[in-house]
Write a structure and sequence with these properties.
This protein is mainly α. Helices cover 71% and strands 1% of the residues. It is built from 16 helices and two strands. A two-stranded parallel ribbon has the order 1-2. The longest helix has 36 residues. The two termini are 16 Å apart.
Amino acid sequence: MKRLEWANALRGIAALIVLGYHFSVAFWMSQDVSASLARRTPLYPGDQGAPVWARAISALPVDLAALGVALFFLLSGFVISISLERYSRAGFLVGRAMRLLPTYAAGYLITCLTIAAMSDPGDELHVGSVLLGSVPGLAYLVRASAPGDGIVWTLIVELVFYGVCVVVFRRLTTRWWAIAAVAAGCALVQTLVPHLPRAAWAEGIQFVVLLACPFIPVMLVGVTLFVHRAGRLRRGPAVVLVLALVGEFVVLASTTPVVPTSWEYRLTFVGAVGVFAAVAAVGDRWTDPGRLLGFLAAISYPLYVVHPVLGYALISWLAGRGVWGPLAVLIAGAAAIGCATAIHFAVEKRTHHLGRRWAGRTRTVPTGSGAGTHEVAGVGN
């Protein structure tokens, strides 16, 4: 299979952006939040003791964490389109499950071991809570508590999008109106669901669905760009559809009752769409992302899963013992990359290969597929 190197390179860049921002800025500028994830006492209140470099980066008019997440969502939309072209519904579900869940569970185990090393101050580690937390979104669905890792919400969005893809399936990549219909459904759900009577058993479902609604239009941008690339949608209509989806994201993200976002966050997502579209337009000229980006791309998903709690705990522990801040960041980064590499080779590669083999038994590539012979990957793809 031919790999789309521009997409692979973007995946490595997105992973580097998220890791760098969390360790170099978010940890220091939001000590109350990062200390909570690290399961340690804050080094100082809020951002009062934040170093100069963290303040300087934080002052930039770009939310770098949002940039990384937006690129991952866009890549996921693009990648899922290829999977929809390649497999049956059953094959799609098997492939997606094997791609996302085992690696997340392995990374979550590292998170729980880190919490245990911090003496589990919140008494979070119980067999039931750990098992629930090992499957993204399950604890939310059953309204139970599980140790938080700070990033599971993005994987919940991914899983909801997978559900949408199973329902709409190949119409999503062959009919522009299917993309528009899913987008309209997101707007309708976010508008109506908060005003409906809430049955206790449905509260978790409502939360998960409302969490995903603002971000699915962003993933649909990736789908739209795939459809255009495959020659099924002319440039003019594709541009109109992308602009409509971006506008919907801004509106839904501004009004969501579940995950409030700042204007800086939303505008960064809009900018990420522009970056992604520009790279996709000229990306085929990029034939070699280089060893570093290739390596980061390969471990990006386990790195994304494992880095927040492990990294924050290490930086907090080291900084609390007087270790120079940048050195603490480098040590935490090396530890996160090391764990991610181990998970990649021990779990991710094996389960991904197995999932593709199982899904391949149902493989059906439609005649004339514009991108059916390409391979790319997003954060969980």
